[in-house]
Amino acid sequence: MKELWNGRFDSNEEIDLRLWQVIKEFDSSFKGEGICFVGYDTDDGVERNQGRVGAKDGSNAIRKAIQSFPKVEGLEIYDYKNLSSKVLEEAQKEYSEKIMNVIKAGMFPIGLGGGHDIAYGSYSGIRKAYPDKKIGIVNFDTHLDIRPYDNGPTSGTSFKQILDNDKNAKYSIVGFKKQGNTKRLIDTAKAYNTLILDEEDEEEYIKEELLKYVETVDIVYVSFCMDVFDAPYAPGVSAPTIMGLDPKKGKRILRSLMDTGKVVCVDFAEVNPQYDIDSRTAKLAGCLAYDIMLNKSK
Questions:
Q1: Torsion of CA 50, 221, 267, 39, to 10 degrees
Q2: What is the DSSP code string of 202-215?
Q3: How far is it, in rounded angstroms, from Cα 117 to Cα 114?
Q4: Which of 82, 156, 224, 244 is disulfide-compatible with 39, CB 3.0–4.6 A?
Q5: What are the pLDDT digits (tens) for 85-129?
């Protein structure tokens, strides 16, 4: 694992251990609780969606951002490494199998992207692991990503693909901003009864609406497009957002969702190191992932 994780060294004493010193490579034969990172290191979907490329390096950037964080007591940490294929359709299929394997092993998958087409891969893996469960999707995003896919999938089509093909799935978005979505996209979302929570909505209102939403489903899948956050906090994305979501507000909303016990997978998309400043975006994704780890160690 040294090629992916290799951080600050203090000592090998238990009291000094950091994530890079304790993480293990995942094997599908494993059974047991823990967290498992799964890399989705492609931005083929971003390029198809006419976005600025570079998110293919996001998976490793997030790893690097958190590799020296302290070990989380009582939590086993694994990594399923990156993709063998970078072509969108093949990548989604491979990644979905990994997500399924992690869930079936009894672990909690955290996806590291990569383009936001990671969302269809995460969903597909969850659906394979839970064929009969009602899935509630919570997408932290400025953009609805509900575009048509007549000419093939992109980083902006995942949620329409899901809703068109799965009547046992629901969709909600947190951090929505009007300037990032045309009337056609908004009308499409409303036609699917999407719960749209604006970036300007009060935090308590968002939490309350999400908790009511979570009550209507069996399991929850949470996806972060990192462009949901205000550009000074997340400059390294495919499409930066001016006056986006405050990170601390987003973290508290995530905690509220995690506390329901229904979240089965979280992923982070659109981390683009090529345009990042001081690794702010990768570190922000890493801090959110670490918060999930702390929650799972309770």
A1: -100
A2: -HHHHHHHHHHHHT
A3: 8
A4: 82
A5: 999 999 999 999 999 999 999 999 999 999 999 999 999 999 999
* 257's tokens: 């969702």
Indicate the angle between helix axes 247-258 and 203-214, nearest 10 degrees: 30
Per the CB < 8 A criterion, the answer to whether 174 and 186 are in contact is: no
> How far is 10 from 17, CA to CA, in rounded Å?
8
In the chain the domains, ranked by start, together with CATH numbers, are 14-296 (3.40.800.10)
Long-range contacts of 254-261 (CB under 8 A, 24+ apart): 254/140, 254/222, 254/288, 254/291, 254/292, 255/291, 255/295, 256/207, 256/210, 256/211, 257/138, 257/210, 257/214, 257/220, 257/222, 258/292, 258/295, 258/296, 259/295, 260/211, 260/214, 260/220
Residue with tokens 């987003």: 250
Render 237-266 in DSSP notation, one character per residue: SSS-BTT-B-HHHHHHHHHHHHTTT-EEEE
Element (H, E) at 174: strand 169-176
This prediction's pTM:
0.97
